[in-house]
Design goal:
The chain is of the alpha+beta class and 149 residues long. It has five helices and eight strands, in the order E-E-H-E-E-H-H-E-E-H-E-E-H.
Length: 149
């Protein structure tokens, strides 16, 4: 199961979004309607099927708590993690604290990133994408230096 691609979505007045049709069946099957939504350092939201998140959370919580960077990561990712359910209309309610953090109001981008999704405020996504495309150089990890597309 790999989620990929992007979809422009709208939030309703209550902060709910419909899961894009192309992901619905697989996401409901894989997640059993249980998801985790948390914040990302890029000011977007991360959305994981619960069982994928539990593996990540376990790794994060095994980091040394006396290390300042580890503590920050634990506070930000695990501290903001919220369990949400897919309702009978294939919608999810994005909690107000997470909408506020990501500045998502009415329009958003729902982006498949393998085993998770990113949810971005539409204008923030557009500006960030343009900035990334204008950067002169991407620095790739050593393992990817020979990557050809």
């Amino acid at each position: 199961m790999m989620f990929r691609g992007l979809n422009k979505i709208s939030l309703d007045a209550k902060g709910r979004v419909s899961i894009p049709t192309k992901y619905r069946h697989e996401l409901i099957k894989v997640s059993k309607n249980k998801l985790i939504c948390t914040i990302d350092l890029d000011h977007c939201l991360l959305l994981y099927p619960l069982h994928h998140w539990l593996k990540i959370e376990e790794k994060i919580m095994k980091l040394p708590s006396l290390d300042n960077s580890s503590r920050k990561l634990q506070r930000l990712l695990v501290g903001h993690a919220v369990e949400i359910e897919i309702d009978s209309s294939a919608r999810i309610l994005i909690p107000s604290e997470l909408r506020e953090f990501s500045k998502i109001n009415k329009e958003a981008m729902f982006i498949g990133q393998g085993k998770r999704f990113e949810i971005w405020d539409y204008l923030t996504w557009t500006k960030s994408r343009e900035k990334w495309l204008q950067e002169e150089k991407f620095t790739l990890p050593k393992d990817f230096e020979m990557l050809s597309l």
